[in-house]
Amino acid sequence: MLDAILSAQCARGLTAADSRLSTIPAGLYELFLENVILPCRIGVFDYERDAPQRVRIDLLLQVRQDGAQFSDDIGDVLSYDDLLSGLKRILMDEHTNLVEMLAEKIARMCLAHDQVQSARVSVAKLDIYDGVAVPGIRLERTRDQMPGQSLPASRRPLAMADRRI
């Protein structure tokens, strides 16, 4: 079955990668950080306040590509390390009641990086239903939805030299 679908796409001159790339606007690229599993103090119930629980976070960012082409210099791109450090800071912060608010905080952290134009954030609570189900949320925020965003120093992106994971 899969072979038939791929053959049909090839006959039309399309591959899965071609159809995916066509949705990325010119001058942008997509950066993803997936399956980040970390402890988090989250939830409205008393038992959720007693101990951290695992959350899974997935990020898909549209990032402005400065210049006509990529260089091989880490200073010219958004660092995965900066994103992961930002996630850890948010999750170690105070208790958050709702996954919706946690996802919003994460989206704002991503958009605090000047080159990020949009952030798609997925947050799932892995332990809440003992493996029977995984509840969560997905949201997407764009730079134009966050006018005048001003983050406290604890939420601002770290300079490359200041990074610690």
UniProtKB/TrEMBL annotation:
SMART domains: FolB. This is dihydroneopterin aldolase. It comes from Azospirillum melinis. Residues 143-165 are annotated as: Disordered. NCBIfam families: folB_dom. Residues 31-141 form the Dihydroneopterin aldolase/epimerase domain. Its EC number is 4.1.2.25. InterPro entries: Dihydroneopterin_aldolase, FolB_dom, GTP-CH-I_C/QueF. Belongs to the DHNA family. Pathway: Cofactor biosynthesis; tetrahydrofolate biosynthesis; 2-amino-4-hydroxy-6-hydroxymethyl-7,8-dihydropteridine diphosphate from 7,8-dihydroneopterin triphosphate: step 3/4. Keywords: Folate biosynthesis, Lyase. It catalyses: 7,8-dihydroneopterin = 6-hydroxymethyl-7,8-dihydropterin + glycolaldehyde. The keyword RNA-binding does not apply. It holds the Pfam family FolB. The lineage of its organism: Bacteria, Pseudomonadati, Pseudomonadota, Alphaproteobacteria, Rhodospirillales.
